Structures are given as C-alpha cells and as structure tokens.
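FIELD: query
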Amino acid sequence: MTKVKKKNEWIEWIKAIIIAIILAFIIRNFLFATSIVEGDSMDPTLENGERVIFNKIVYFIGEPARGDIIIIQRPQKNYVKRVIGLPGETIEIKDHKLFINDEQYEQTFITEEAINHTGNFGPIEIPEDSYFVMGDHRAISKDSRNGLGFITEDEIIGRSELVIFPFSEMERTR
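FIELD: result
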C-alpha cells in the first residue's frame, strides 16, 4: 500500500467518525433521548429504575394529548407524568372518580387500587397555556394536585415512547 492510499484511508476514517459524532449529537439533542424513572409514582406503567426513550420532536409538530406520558423539565429535576387535563378544561376528582368538564373519564391505565386511593380534588380550571398531570400511582405521586402545579408547554421536553431497560420490560409506554 502506498503512503497516499494509507493517508486517504485515514482521512476517510476520520470523516466517518466526525459524521457519526455529529449525527449522534443531532439525534440526542433534537430527536430522542433517554431518561431513568426515579420513584414509584408511575407504577405500574413505569417502574423505578427503568430507562425510557423519549421523543423530543413530537411536540414541535403537535400538542400533548390526554394519556401521553411526558417528561417535564424543572430546575431541580425531571418528572415523568401522564397528561390528564388539557388547556381550558376543568378537572375534578370526587368519590374516587375523575371528571373532565363534568364528564366521568375512565382511567384504563391505572389499577383499581390507585383509583381507590385518589382523594377528592377540585374542581379546578386549567389555564389556556397549561396542562394537568398525574402519576399512575395516585396515592404517592407528586403531580399537579400536590406540588407540581400546572405544567406549561415549554416545561415538556418530550413524550415517553419505549422502555429500553431492563430488557425484559421493553415495550411502548402508551
């Protein structure tokens, strides 16, 4: 092999590495990222220690929908919660039942035990620029009812798409 050929081969390898780094940077910062679930507030949907992939671009294209599991960025830490109420809606919980705009909403994503540990709340109207979120394990969740308050769209950094670790739990989160 000539010196020129070896030099060209090295240049090609360096180009490939630089392109791979740039692509990884773009994907990580603008499209998808991972987050580790801390705590049991989303149990049984997501468990403590699970690693999820979240979609960072989805809300540039559309709006959060009821039922989406979102990543909320706050200065002290990130939270993983489920969107329950949308801007302008009225939320009320009475007798362990969730009402949205005075209509009962069936919560098929939580356990009967979680429903029975959901205390009375509201009614409260969600501001036009905000969302109401709750964890699936209602008895222990810090959420819009008791500490997080309403969530603005700029605090939402993505939608959880897939559990990637542990591998035995690999599945879509919606």
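FIELD: remark
The mean pLDDT is 86.
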